[in-house]
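Q: Got a minute? One more chain.
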Amino acid sequence: MEKVAVVMDWGGTWVRAGVVDSGGNLLWHDRSLNKAGGTQSELISGAYRVLENALRWCEDKAVVGVGIAAAGPIDAESGIFYSPPNLQVLDGVCIKGIWEEATGYPIVIGNDATMAALGEYNYGAGLDPDDGIESSRTLLYLTISTGVGGGVVDRGKVVVGAHGMAAEVGHMRIDSGESAPTCQCGNKGCLEALVSGTSIVRLFNLELDRVADTVKQSWNERQVDTQVIFEAANYGDPIAESILTKVIADLSVGITNLVHLFNPDRVVLGGGVSLSLTKFGYIETIRDMVAGAVMSTRHKEFNIKPAKLGDNAGLIGAACLIWEQFE
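A: Always. Here it is, folded:
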């Protein structure tokens, strides 16, 4: 009987489940939206239904365990959520205990970006040889989407910290000024509050409020999201250009800090905003800004790459953890 890992990636907007074999192949997957404004029980039951679908699909397979990548912070050992900015109603919930009892399978759990880092290291951008590195030794992963998260894999091992909460890079403080935007975590000037997709749209709308009514009216007729803002900047819109110039600068400061902390040879960018950074040619600009700011020649020996596994990185990374712990 084929051995498989059942996996879940539970973010602030979507909950996704899948089945992964020992070779890192995604055999089946499904997803569902979290209920907007849902209660704790509604979010848990909605996510569990998707997990049940995955387990049901595995009737003729041997499930080794269940791996969950979740928008944290979450204690990797206990499986308890601690003030998760994007899943706030789950604060204090021990999802590991609840679902181990419900499914009968052992569960491993970790931060979604950390799991994505592990997936990219083993099966994605970590293996990309086109920059002269056969495989990455130390990989830094950032996901820039609704929020900002991160993970670090050093020589095959995830950097987890004392409680499995390391690399919450989105809550590194970048702007300490009085006018710095407030982050969902409650602090001001966090990287997430400056460069996430949600923040880019909010900052753009604030800037739009300051311009002439005729300019404002032309924008108000459009559905504004990050993709639209990137496209507008590409066509020379001054508001969009000014917002993205600041976003690129702040992101470069954040990555510079992380390069000094972890000395990666590869920085991998995932998430919806990163897709736009790649599409519109900002990756090389960021790389040059970081390389110009780091303290030594050896720190400059890194490359920035787009993620290769897309939305599946967290699922595949969670499966890697299953194989590591139970096989």
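A: The chain has a mean pLDDT of 91.
Q: Perfect, thanks.
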